[in-house]
Design a protein that fits this description.
Blueprint (H helix, E strand, L loop, with lengths): L1 E5 L6 H14 L3 E5 L21 E5 L6 H9 L10 E3 L2 E4 L8 E3 L20 H10 L3 E4 L7 E5 L2 E5 L7 E7 L6 E6 L1
Parallel strand pairs: 1-2, 2-3, 5-6, 6-7, 7-9
Antiparallel strand pairs: 1-10, 4-5, 8-9, 10-11
Length: 188
């Protein structure tokens, strides 16, 4: 299974077009949108990505998305990996506070991992870190910190900050395979 994960579109038309082009080129089975689809509600064109045909879309709101974005996700064919998670082709996608999952989808990275901001401070979530250390999902998909895209390990988990926020990357491609999923950042 191929999972295309991205975050921090911030409603920008060039990023929305880039996601559409990447979906057409990569032909993923799943598109994960890890928050900040809009920028305080501006750029609602990004919500059209929730309804891409022939593709399972999983999406969560980020800190820059108003509550209406979560409502739009709930009304769409996309799924929020909350409330027990979402299983697709034997892979369980979940969110913070849920039962253990294979792919944790959050907006903020775990504290101390791919979370260094422009001023050098670590701004990740301690709650995400605690969840990862306790439940050990195979992959953690996050964004939020535009300055820290990348792929790193935390315990037994692969963490991928798939932000588009610095305009260097389109996100990441996760190829789900045994014994270990393969993750690569996609240069813009």
């Amino acid at each position: 299974m191929r999972i295309y994960a991205t975050a921090d579109l911030h409603g920008r038309r060039d990023r929305i077009r880039a996601v559409r082009a990447a979906v057409a080129r990569l032909q993923p089975d799943v598109l994960v949108l890890a928050g900040d689809l809009t920028h305080s509600g501006r750029g609602r064109e990004a919500l059209e990505l929730l309804e891409l045909p022939g593709l399972r879309v999983l999406a969560i709101p980020g800190n820059m998305d108003p509550f209406e974005v979560e409502e739009a996700i709930a009304r769409s064919t996309a799924r929020l990996p909350r409330g027990g998670g979402v299983e697709y082709r034997g892979v369980r996608f979940g969110s913070l506070g849920e039962e253990p999952c294979d792919v944790l989808v959050v907006h903020e990275p775990p504290r101390g991992v791919l979370d260094r901001a422009w001023n050098g401070a670590h701004i990740g979530s301690q709650a995400v870190r605690a969840y990862v250390e306790r439940h050990r999902p195979r992959v953690v998909v996050c964004g939020h910190v535009h300055e820290s895209p990348g792929v790193e390990r935390l315990a037994d988990s692969t963490v991928v900050n798939c932000t588009m926020g610095n305009d260097r990357y389109l996100g990441a491609l996760i190829t789900w395979q045994e014994p270990e999923p393969q993750v690569e950042l996609l240069p813009r």
